[in-house]
Write a structure and sequence with these properties.
heterodimer, A: 279 residues, alpha+beta, Uridine Diphospho-n-acetylenolpyruvylglucosamine Reductase, domain 3, Enolase-like, domain 1, three-stranded parallel sheet, 12 helices, 25% strand, B: 669 residues, Aldehyde Oxidoreductase, domain 4, seven-stranded mixed sheet, five-stranded mixed sheet, 27 strands
């Protein structure tokens, strides 16, 4: 059998995690699939479980002057119905899986699972979102792009939990999420892209891109983004191929059962170019 | 069920080689392994070609080949035993090209040699089609139990008597010792035609060893990785063109990949070869076909049965010829369409009226085909519209119905006036639970509630043949209708009455199977599909914008059921053409679950319009012909032609994935 705990408070949860024995499970939409076993038998879980989806302390959406803060167990469906959540994140969430999954899936889970194809992670990294991480005796914050270190790898320690996701409270003139999947709904991204851009007096004041499914983790590079800042739209449009190609080295996809590296690379660049053309 | 045991299959982990040793841990009491050593009679799945064992002989020919079952009462303990069983192999290199040919067929019509000699121009193209997975709702599975000596199997199946005959053969027992009952089936698409016989044989041997009921249900991944799929094909077509820019002869070289065992592949090949003319008439034909053997999972029956591959190739080819000879593709195709009285590809005769011109008129008008084709031929629009013209021979190929199947149906009227329809045909979503009672109720002029159709049980129903080949309504329904007429004439109240009818081939049908000569099918259903698409030049993705189809299925028994068949069929056919992508790398299938093997959702489909034209067939019930497979066949060529127009490049393979579209669009970079 699988041993499990359903703690009723965050404090109790963190105390359990101090033993370093447990696997945290929230919606389970990734974990249950990864642990699947012969139907009607016990899933292949290596550690006993601590469920956290019931923790009301982690289920919230709040606005502060600097951030929109989202509790890690807040479901996608709740986020879709909130007026505080940035539109680009909602545009992303609506592309994730199907309604059934979106009722239990969470941002915390999407980040902790650290899939390079995670759609919400792509948008959150573009938004420069940070995670607040708690253990029974500490609290720390980390940028999501640093928190995720590789395929399914994060800096989360066994005694820690993601408490919340903080999205900088900034307005964008352009904030778009593009997903290319095998079909129009309920598909894992072959390649995805979130692009944010501010323009003042025809000059780019902010440019930020994150790519999904093109490398071991969601890819972004602030240095490349900054090459656009201060340039006029005309300058970029007149040299659109050169500007697009600046991202080429960041896009290092592989061939797999869903697509090819050539396709992912080409489409990622095409999408940047198509975005620039909308400016 | 009391004392239920469970079974899990141990499968090969190599693609080709031999088993060197199997180490089985000491088994707890009540746990068993079942393998070829336990076989009571033959280790062959009785299909058409007897080459597939149901427990590995020790020679491995594909990945995930079944070696043994582990049987016991606790699934967790079974899992543990499965993990502890160690198998050592001596591995060999698999073969994945066309070098191993198992079946070779050849036929001719007219004098192709002369036509090619006199040709003004010869055009040649090669086409490829990929694997397609049936993706039925529930995976394969059976429950088996023994009562006295008798073995009963309940399963998700299309052909109760195929299963029964295979088990009788495997056990070497008498026919009354095996009973097969159909469980509810949520779609089969051919995937439950011959494959279930393999599991049934394994389980029949197991129940004879264990003497307790056993349940074996595949996992979805296990199902995708180990069961039959649509045959990939390579089709090379050559056309002789005369001075009028007409095709005088087609020469075809067809290879279908049967996988590791032949199974039904020879029959799939025949249907593909016979479909060589598409819905056109060519005076001269030379057709060569092979089944090739590769070390991949065996391929088998799938809705359309060889025809979808051939129709994709011939429709693309006709379009290509028109382009190469600088003529309007529509007019060119219209000049070649089959007409009543024409000789079929196998030199039989299209005896019945052919409504192709009407079907084409309806489909092109309703889809605005001509004006859109003109508008979309401009560059930079990235939209296209494609039309496919197709037919499907109803029932078994050739004299299969009279020589192999010999269908029998029975109506049993009880004293209280209920009429039981006793046939072996299963309802697998295609609606015969409605249509067969509707036929009987209409003829007997009794309420439909008094016409009973239950899931077949071989102890109660005669062998009316398998639920395949678009034959259920036309052949089985036709016999049921004749039985109902006889019952009506002899109806006596308050008396039990039984009427039995056997299939008699219409006397005009003559077919020589070895020479592919004569009437390959008693009747044909016809269709035209028009698919309109846009292609995104940024992501190379295809969007379906509109689908219009027109069909001649003789006569609809039930309008809404035909609508369901039409929409489901064309979606499956279009998806075969552009969306569903399955590939194997050296015998290893890459898309092993429904996350990675993408099938369409409602969001991938556009508005679909279906038009039905009546053209009653004299031997079908109320004039009905086949409809189950027809609606799939035009999907792939129509969508491929539409994409071809949108990107203005030659498409020679399906599925037309975004990756392939990208390759084509940048081939001149």
């Amino acid at each position: 059998m699988v041993t499990h705990h359903i703690p009723s408070t965050l404090e109790e949860t963190l105390k359990l995690l101090e033993t370093n024995l447990y696997q945290v499970m929230c919606g389970g939409t990734d974990l249950m699939v990864q642990s699947r076993s012969w139907a009607n038998t016990v899933p292949k879980l290596v550690k006993p479980l601590v469920f956290i989806s019931q923790l009301s302390e982690l289920n919230f959406i709040e606005e502060t002057p600097d951030y929109i803060e989202i509790g890690s167990v807040t479901s996608y469906e709740t986020l879709l119905n909130s007026s505080l959540v940035p539109k680009v994140l909602k545009d992303t969430i609506i592309e994730i899986a199907a309604p059934g999954i979106r009722h239990v899936g969470t941002l915390g889970g999407n980040i902790a699972n650290a899939s390079p194809a995670a759609d919400a992670v792509c948008t959150l990294i573009a938004l420069d979102a940070i995670v607040e991480i708690m253990s029974s005796n500490s609290i720390r914050t980390e940028k999501i792009c640093d928190f995720i270190i590789g395929v399914k790898k994060t800096t989360l320690k066994p005694n820690e939990i993601i408490r919340s996701i903080k999205i900088p409270n900034v307005e964008h003139d352009y904030a778009n999420f593009y997903k290319v999947g095998g079909r129009k709904a309920d598909a894992i991204s072959k390649v995805s892209l979130c692009v944010l851009c501010n323009v003042k007096d025809n000059i780019i004041t902010k440019f930020r891109i994150a790519f999904g499914a093109v490398g071991p983790k969601v890819a972004s590079n602030i240095k490349t983004d900054e090459l656009f800042v201060g340039k006029t739209i005309d300058e970029i449009k007149n040299n659109i191929d050169d500007y697009t190609k600046k991202y080429a080295s960041l896009i290092t996809p592989i061939d797999d059962q869903r697509s090819t590296k050539e396709y992912r690379h080409k489409v990622a660049l095409n999408m940047i170019k198509a975005f620039i053309e909308t400016l | 069920m009391k004392d239920m045991m469970y079974a899990k299959t141990i499968r090969s982990k190599i693609v080709k080689g031999t088993i060197k040793s199997i180490t089985i841990p000491p088994l707890p009491e009540g746990y068993f392994t079942v393998s070829r050593e336990d076989i009571l009679s033959k280790n062959i799945v009785k299909i058409i070609f007897e080459d597939m064992p149901y427990y590995s002989t020790g020679e491995i020919n594909h990945l995930n080949e079944p070696i043994m079952l582990v049987v016991g009462s606790d699934m967790e303990i079974i899992k543990q035993i499965v993990d502890e069983i160690k198998i050592e192999y001596s591995e060999e290199n698999g073969v994945f090209d066309e070098s191993q040919k198992t079946i070779a067929y050849h036929f001719k019509k007219g004098n192709p040699k002369r036509a090619f000699k006199n040709a003004e121009k010869v055009i040649e193209m090669t086409y490829h089609t990929g694997l397609q997975e049936q993706a039925y709702i529930e995976p394969q599975g059976f429950i088996v139990y023994e009562e006295d000596e008798k073995v009963t199997l309940i399963g998700s199946i299309q052909c109760p008597y195929y299963v029964k005959n295979a088990v009788v053969y495997a056990l070497g027992c008498s026919s009354d010792q095996v009973r097969v009952i159909q469980a509810a089936v949520g779609g089969a698409f051919g995937g439950k035609e011959e494959y279930p016989s393999l599991i049934a044989c394994q389980l029949a041997v197991a129940v004879k060893k264990v003497h307790k009921p056993i349940k074996l249900i595949f996992e979805r991944e296990e199902d995708i990785l180990s069961t039959t799929k649509r045959h990939p094909s390579r089709i090379t077509l050559k056309a002789a063109i005369n001075e009028l820019n007409n095709v005088t002869s087609i020469s075809a070289d067809i290879a279908i990949d049967g996988g590791a065992y032949t199974g039904l592949s020879s029959v799939v090949l025949s249907r593909a070869m016979i479909a060589v003319s598409g819905a056109y008439t060519f005076e001269n034909l030379e057709v060569l076909g092979h089944v090739i053997k590769t070390n991949t999972v065996p391929n088998g029956a799938f809705r359309g049965f060889g025809a979808p591959q051939m129709f994709f190739a011939i429709e693309m080819f006709m379009h290509h010829i028109a382009k190469e000879t600088h003529q309007d593709s529509f007019a060119f195709r219209m000049r070649h369409i089959a007409r009543q009285g024409d000789k079929t590809s196998t030199s039989g005769t299209f005896r019945d009226p052919i409504l192709l011109e009407d079907l084409i008129r309806v489909a092109t008008e309703k889809s605005k085909y001509h004006s859109k084709a003109l508008a979309y031929s401009q560059p930079g629009i990235y939209k296209g519209i494609g039309m496919s013209i197709f037919l499907h021979g109803c029932g078994f190929t050739g004299s299969g119905e009279s020589t192999h199947i010999k269908a029998q149906v029975k109506l049993l009227k009880t004293k209280d006036g209920l009429v039981h329809i006793l046939v072996a045909a299963v309802d697998m979503g295609q609606g015969i639970k409605t249509t067969l009672p509707k036929i009987v109720s209409q003829i007997l002029e009794i309420p439909i509630e008094r016409c009973i159709f239950n899931y077949p049980d071989t102890d109660n129903v005669p062998d009316s043949g398998p639920t395949v080949a678009s034959r259920t309504i036309m052949i089985v329904g036709g016999l049921v209708a004749r039985a109902a007429k006889e019952l009506k004439e002899n109806w006596i109240d308050n008396l039990e009455q039984i009427v039995t009818k056997r299939y008699v081939q219409p006397s005009y049908i003559k077919y020589d199977e070895s020479k592919f000569k004569g009437d390959a099918y008693p009747a044909y259903s016809w269709g035209v599909s028009v698919v309109e698409v846009s292609v995104d030049p940024i992501t190379y993705q295809t969007k379906i914008l509109n689908v219009v189809s027109a069909y001649d299925v003789g006569k609809e028994i039930d309008e809404r059921i035909i609508q369901g068949q039409a929409e489901g069929g064309i979606v499956q056919g279009i998806a075969y053409g552009y969306l569903e992508n399955m590939s194997a790398n050296k015998g290893v299938i890459k898309q092993k679950n429904l996350t990675d093997y993408i099938i369409p959702t409602t969001l991938d489909v556009s508005k679909m319009s279906t038009y039905i034209l009546d053209n009653p067939y004299q031997y079908g019930p109320f004039g009905a012909k086949g409809a189950g497979e027809l609606t799939l066949i035009g999907g792939a060529p129509a969508v491929a032609l539409a994409i071809q127009m949108a990107i203005n490049k030659n498409i020679t393979k399906i599925p037309v994935t975004p990756e392939y579209v990208m390759e084509l669009m940048h081939d001149d970079d």
